[in-house]
């Protein structure tokens, strides 16, 4: 058998990396002002969230977690457990790093909701739009999350600000998808009823479709939060501070104990945030029968 | 016929689903039937040249099997579906000529709808559901809630205002659906198989309720069903649909007497046994039962204990012998006649699976409750006249 039937023929070349580089270069040179203003905007947003988060007294945060868990689950044991877990992050000496990480997560999730929710609503209204957006979302979600860091860092520089952008890109697809899905699966007769009683399109969206889709939309928010948390560690590669950076330092210095400590703190954050949002979803679902 | 009483007039209504509507129309006009059109052009003919008029204050029933187009017709009446051709006149005005605003007004003030699976909004409580139509119309909160409370009371759900929908039974949910439709005080109520999802006992309850509400409020109702009993019970006028066409339209009496063709006849005769009652659903255990070998004294004591004036007399194996009245029992005690002679043996019997509707004519004239027996003539229960009649309301 000739070689070219076994080894892929070296003569066939598809080069998409150069055009992408050229495109990014073009963005950097021609759209510099635009990206600087985005950077500045994001920085102000992130810093103000960080400012608030840092000033929440540690005991207040733990109390809030206690009360919320208790009200959601009605189980005092669980409320105590979660409070203790969060307390242990402080005890491990990671409280300030957790605050930094929390601020990045909150900023990313808020931006994701601002972008993702209306997009999801829009996508739900048109089959054609859905068929265009769906493959884009698939790509965004399956693309290794590291890849987003490169252009984000090139366009917005290093640090926490580009991380917020990269995290948003990575975390927004499930929200768009589930918002659209939630609205589409609202019972046909319920929508018909809204129309039959003379609702305008806007009224049936606001008064019926979105509230009916709320549990599914909240599932999307939950997934967005989880993805944002996972991205925080990856983001340390472009200089994101906080718990992720702690992990990266541990890798570089081969300090297993330090790495695991930071890792456990991230796990605790993930568990608490997941259970709290799940609680909201369950509460919403209690209204939807069957 | 052009009289003032006609609220709703449907003229040559057709509704086609699919892409090649124009050639499909040609095909139907040239006499092709629904299946041919679907096969050749991929167009579904849901409604084919349907015309009817609905008079004010009457209940107009459209009946047909699933796929007959009845639900599509009712959805055209408030333009949830847009007719492909034909016209629909509300009080003489074509609703197809309505602009956006007029259509909203029409839906908000003139016509409301009740749905098969209720179409209730589970994120709202009973009160908010009932007030929905008033809310989108822009009625002030206090006013719409007062009105909603009034209607909730009317449909018998007082005290449930702030319950969530998931706490309600099926029958109660549909009461909410009806209340929501009535809250708008519409001219026309469209009801798309409103009781099909309910179990038979609740259904007949709701049918009765609907009739009494209709008497009280004098609404015009377009009612969709697949149950001929329901259609005949409720309808002032009944139209039978098949394959998108109305094949007969008449009063229930006339239709039962003169079915237009075999299809109508078989429809009228096809009593879906699962859908209506048989005797076993309404029979009761006889309150007083004596054995033939018991003496008159025992019989009298039993009747006294149960405060009834007659007792069922059974043999050794519970087989039914007849009825002993209290007067005859006294005569037996005084020795006037023997117990064997005193028992009235000529009584009506039936079995558990007999349809209640079949008992209607005999029950009305029966002197005693009808005895329900099994194949060995053993007494299983009794059916009172009241039970038969009330189950059919």
Short description:
Chain A contains 13 helices and no strands. Chain A has 290 residues and is mostly helical.
Descriptive notes:
- Chain A has 290 residues and is mainly alpha-helical.
- In chain A, 83% of the residues lie in helices and 0% in strands.
- The longest helix of chain A has 34 residues.
- Chain A is globular.
- Chain A starts with a helix and ends in a 5-residue tail after the last helix.
- By secondary structure, chain B is an alpha/beta fold.
- In chain B, α7 packs across α8 and α17 packs across α18.
- The longest helix of chain B has 18 residues.
Helices and strands in order:
The complex is a heterodimer of chains A (290) and B (393).
Chain A: H1 3-6, H2 17-30, H3 32-55, H4 58-73, H5 76-91, H6 95-124, H7 127-142, H8 145-156, H9 160-184, H10 188-196, H11 201-234, H12 243-253, H13 256-285
Helix pairs in contact in A: 3-6, 3-9, 4-5, 4-13, 5-13, 6-9, 6-11, 7-9, 8-9, 9-11, 10-11, 11-13, 12-13
Chain B: E1 6-17, H1 21-29, H2 34-41, E2 44-55, E3 59-63, H3 70-77, E4 85-90, E5 93-94, H4 100-110, E6 111-114, H5 126-130, H6 132-137, H7 141-154, H8 170-183, E7 188-192, H9 200-217, E8 220-225, H10 228-234, E9 237-242, E10 245-250, H11 252-257, H12 262-269, H13 279-282, E11 289-291, H14 296-305, E12 310-314, E13 320-325, H15 326-333, H16 339-342, E14 349-350, H17 356-365, E15 370-373, E16 379-383, H18 385-391
Parallel strand pairs in B: 3-8, 3-9, 6-7, 7-8, 11-12, 14-15
Antiparallel strand pairs in B: 1-2, 1-4, 4-5, 9-10, 12-13, 15-16
Helix pairs in contact in B: 7-8, 14-15, 17-18
């Amino acid at each position: 058998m000739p070689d070219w039937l076994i080894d892929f023929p070296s003569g066939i070349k598809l080069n998409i990396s150069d055009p992408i580089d050229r495109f990014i270069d073009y963005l950097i040179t021609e759209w510099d002002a635009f990206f600087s203003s985005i950077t500045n905007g994001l920085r102000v947003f992130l810093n103000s969230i960080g400012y608030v988060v840092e000033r929440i007294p540690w005991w207040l945060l733990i109390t809030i977690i206690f009360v919320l868990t208790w009200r959601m689950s009605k189980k005092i044991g669980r409320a105590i457990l979660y409070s203790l877990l969060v307390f242990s992050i402080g005890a491990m000496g990671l409280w300030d790093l957790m605050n930094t990480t929390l601020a990045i997560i909150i900023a990313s999730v808020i931006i994701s909701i601002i972008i993702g929710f209306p997009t999801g609503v829009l996508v739900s209204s048109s089959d054609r739009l859905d068929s265009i957006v769906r493959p884009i979302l698939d790509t965004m979600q399956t693309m290794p999350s590291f890849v987003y860091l490169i252009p984000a860092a090139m366009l917005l520089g290093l640090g926490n600000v580009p991380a917020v952008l990269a995290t948003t890109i990575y975390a927004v697809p499930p929200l768009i998808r589930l918002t659209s899905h939630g609205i589409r699966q609202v019972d046909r007769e319920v929508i018909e009823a809204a129309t039959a009683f003379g609702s305008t399109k806007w009224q049936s969206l606001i008064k019926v479709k979105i509230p009916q889709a709320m549990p599914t939309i909240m599932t999307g928010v939950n997934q967005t939060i989880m993805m944002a948390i996972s991205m925080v560690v990856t983001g340390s590669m472009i200089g994101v501070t906080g718990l992720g950076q702690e992990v990266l330092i541990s890798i570089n210095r081969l300090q297993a104990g330090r790495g695991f400590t930071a890792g456990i703190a991230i796990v605790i954050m993930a568990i608490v945030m997941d259970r709290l949002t799940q609680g909201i979803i369950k509460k919403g679902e209690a209204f939807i029968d069957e | 016929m052009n009289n003032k009483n006609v609220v709703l007039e449907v003229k040559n209504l057709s509704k086609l689903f699919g892409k090649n509507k124009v050639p499909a129309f040609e095909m139907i006009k040239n006499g092709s039937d629904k299946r041919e059109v679907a096969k050749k052009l991929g167009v579904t003919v849901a409604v084919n040249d349907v015309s009817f008029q609905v008079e004010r204050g009457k209940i107009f029933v459209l009946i047909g099997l699933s796929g007959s187009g009845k639900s599509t017709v009712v959805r055209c009446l408030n333009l949830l579906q847009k007719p492909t051709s034909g016209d629909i006149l509300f009080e003489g005005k074509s609703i197809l000529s309505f602009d956006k605003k007029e259509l909203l007004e029409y839906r908000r003030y003139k016509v409301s709808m009740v749905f098969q699976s209720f179409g209730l909004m589970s994120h709202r409580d009973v009160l908010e559901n009932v007030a929905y139509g008033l809310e989108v119309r822009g009625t002030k909160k206090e006013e719409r809630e007062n009105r909603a409370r009034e209607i909730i009371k009317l449909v018998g759900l007082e005290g449930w205002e702030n319950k969530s929908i998931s706490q309600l039974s099926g029958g109660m949910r549909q009461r909410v659906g009806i209340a929501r439709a009535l809250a708008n005080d519409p001219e026309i109520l469209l009801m798309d198989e409103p009781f099909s999802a309910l179990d038979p006992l609740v259904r007949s309850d709701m049918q009765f309720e609907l009739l009494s509400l209709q008497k009280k409020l004098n609404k015009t109702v377009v009612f969709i069903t697949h149950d001929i009993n329901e259609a005949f019970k409720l309808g002032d006028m009944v139209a039978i649909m098949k394959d998108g066409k109305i094949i007969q339209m008449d009063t229930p009496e006339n239709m039962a007497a003169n079915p237009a063709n075999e299809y109508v006849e078989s429809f009228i005769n096809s009593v879906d046994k699962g859908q209506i009652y048989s005797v076993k659903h309404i029979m009761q255990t006889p309150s007083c039962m004596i054995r033939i070998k018991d003496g008159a004294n025992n019989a009298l004591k039993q009747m006294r204990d149960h405060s009834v004036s007659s007792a069922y007399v059974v043999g050794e194996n519970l087989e039914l012998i007849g009825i002993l009245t209290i007067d005859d029992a006294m005569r037996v005690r005084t020795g006037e006649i023997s117990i064997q002679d005193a028992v009235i043996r000529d009584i009506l019997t039936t079995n558990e699976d007999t349809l209640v509707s079949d008992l209607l004519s005999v029950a009305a004239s029966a002197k005693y409750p009808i005895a329900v027996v099994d194949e060995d003539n053993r007494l299983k229960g009794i059916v009172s006249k009241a039970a038969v009649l009330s189950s059919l309301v």
